[in-house]
Amino acid sequence: xxxxxxxxxxxxxxxxxxxxxxxxxxxxxxxxxxxxxxxxxxxxxxxxxxxxxxxxxxxxxxxxxxxxxxxxxxxxxxxxxxxxxxxxxxxxxxxxxxxxxxxxxxxxxxxxxxxxxxxxxxxxxxxxxxxxxxxxxxxxxxxxxxxxxxxxxxxxxxxxxxxxxxxxxxxxxxxxxxxxxxxxxxxxxxxxxxxxxxxxxxxxxxxxxxxxxxxxxxxxxxxxxxxxxxxxxxxxxxxxxxxxxxxxxxxxxxxxxxxxxxxxxxxxxxxxxxxxxxxxxxxxxxxxxxxxxxxxxxxxxxxxxxxxxxxxxxxxxxxx
Length: 320
Fold this sequence. Notes:
By secondary structure, the chain is mostly helical. It has 14 helices and no strands. The radius of gyration is 20 Å and the shape is globular.
């Protein structure tokens, strides 16, 4: 993954830095990438690392900036996002190695965008959505009144990521034909994250579930906050979560057939990711919706088993 227009050692180091971030923070995601061909993995790691850095800035604000990026600790989160966009645009235009604090991640991301001809607009859409998470920005929201509003947010925070990754994976049809399913799968993953992370998001003063859907079950922000304080899931919240999980599974049902539009070699990795993320929903249900007490995770042995099964199935199909 070396571009002759950039210093080879710096570019290789940039991709290694992205791989470390993916391995440390995206266990399910990282495991799924192990099923990709070796030449595709660095690009996927670069996109994950880019999204992770932005997520850290938005979710942890000054603490993340001060601890991880001390050179720019004086900037507010909105300023950090502006800096990232400015530096990424510079990297794309000048084919330059970007300096710290975001140098390795943006250098690898820019190289990936050029190498796989990814539309840069997907990154600007993503950053615009992330600005909705930052207090003080014009479009900041800490709650979403309707599913339509949440979908607007997810079009940047999730669907755009699916569209970023699609050219790396490759398709057996024109890319445009595979885009709706890729966007839907990104949104399905995102909604699963929202369900899993309700407690953590409440701690940050945010709710990423549609208020009108919750209200139909007698659930509001105060009840969610009470559940967080007591670490007990009220029966009304259980019913609301069951409904949102059903909505989430319906998104998966519409998205998963699109995996067959991808190149055969990458399908096991994406099926693994879909199965493992769907497994988080199973864990939430199996716990009695105890999302305020602990974080639902798929056990390591189950993650390995799912990945191994998908790999073995793909190998048998190729031999057949």
